[in-house]
Amino acid sequence: MKTFITNDFLLQNDFAKTLYHDYAKELPIIDYHNHLPPKEIAKNHVFENISQVWLAGDHYKWRAMRAFGVSEKYITGNASDKEKFLKWAAVVPNTLRNPLYHWTHLELQRYFGLNHLLNSDNAEEIYEKTSSVLQESSHHTLGLLQQQNVEVVCTTDDPIDSLEHHFLVQEKKTTPKTLPTFRPDKAYAVEDSKTYILYIEKLASASEIVIDSYQDLISALKNRIDFFHDAGGRLADHGLERLYSFSENAFDSEILFKKLLNGKQLTEKEVQFYKINTLLHLGRYYHEKKWVMQFHLGAIRNNNKRLLSTLGPDTGFDSIGDFSQARGLSDFLNHLDSSDQLTKTIVYNLNPADNEIFAAMAGNFNDGTIKGKVQYGAAWWFLDQKDGIEKQLDTLSNIGLLSCFVGMLTDSRSFLSFPRHEYFRRILCNSIGKDVENGELPKDEKLLGKLVSNVCYYNAKEYFDFT
Hints:
Layout: H1 14-24, E1 29-31, H2 38-42, H3 50-54, H4 59-67, H5 81-91, H6 99-112, H7 123-133, H8 141-147, E2 150-154, H9 164-172, E3 177-179, E4 181-182, H10 193-207, H11 214-230, E5 235-240, H12 253-261, H13 268-289, E6 292-297, E7 299-300, H14 305-311, E8 319-320, H15 326-337, E9 344-349, H16 355-364, E10 374-376, H17 386-399, H18 419-437, H19 445-464
Parallel strand pairs: 1-2, 2-3, 4-5, 5-6, 6-9, 9-10
Antiparallel strand pairs: 7-8
Helix pairs in contact: 1-18, 1-19, 10-11, 11-13, 16-17, 17-18
């Protein structure tokens, strides 16, 4: 059976079709947050088969396969790449109404020109055909990105990273521009003092700064921010359950740091303070460097301890948390804003019950100095699907200004994930088209076309200013 993804997929009226085809479809992509491996971009990596580029590291697919009763052997285990693909193909017809069903067929169509629904009957043929196509230069990593008109990708990188592959891409002057994002989570992950000490030793080596005190730690992190800046980095990102409320002198960070160096465990409150105090130091330096600061909040990670112990983190056992967000987020942003050191900031929410909280909080710290200075970020992770995207757009529209929104990102580890920008653009255009049809917006193509093109591309281009 041929695919249901037609030229007007998700576009339910003529005005929505006009907006998408004339104002969104052809715009370049600025993917300002993803987890692509920069080495594979720098080396223009060639994937042997579709499993390597499509299934490896994709915990969305892994969760679906486990839910359908597929053995771990065919997910992260020692089965062959072909066996894993055949198992995934058998699961696909059973992902109906899950976003994976849309993404799967969008990706097969956009990258390989395949217009048939994937299932067990055609799986072997599709495996062989796609694996053959992946050997062509148009389907090496750079080709895959260029096919989707990707202008910028911002990878996610630890402070100790050498960024050698980013520099290599820049030397080659290839498209897309590949820039690092500073992700310092391990610099304040002090729940386990032994693990933390090992990380501090690596940070000291990377920064060439002896770290004997908390102030040394901050100096080392600033050193690495400068290094990332020289590599073209203009963003920082942080993943936490939530932010916490503390006065800045609630504890002494130097004393806490000495406790950690001596192998002692901090109390829960000490851990929380250490994180916040470190983030405040970083936030002030981001402001000095004119960076964008991002916070991904609300995930409860590593829930299945049995499978975590055998498979490790980031393998599909994280979910939506129910943390109290408003007070901690307010206090943290206010600490920085009170001294006028709050940089451009994007806050991403994982719990849909908190959508309005995040949108309203972002608006508190827009001070008229920068268009959209504090952003309520795109629908993220479990919310990165049609319903979640629509709700994020509606919440932002109701409480803030959709016209200032910097748009979508992939947050992905896969080079085949970029049709998610198309998915977002279609949903955006359809939402506006429905409002026009309902008489809730003027049928003004120029006005609404500008809104669409700004959200899909131009706002991000202006906001991040990667030039």
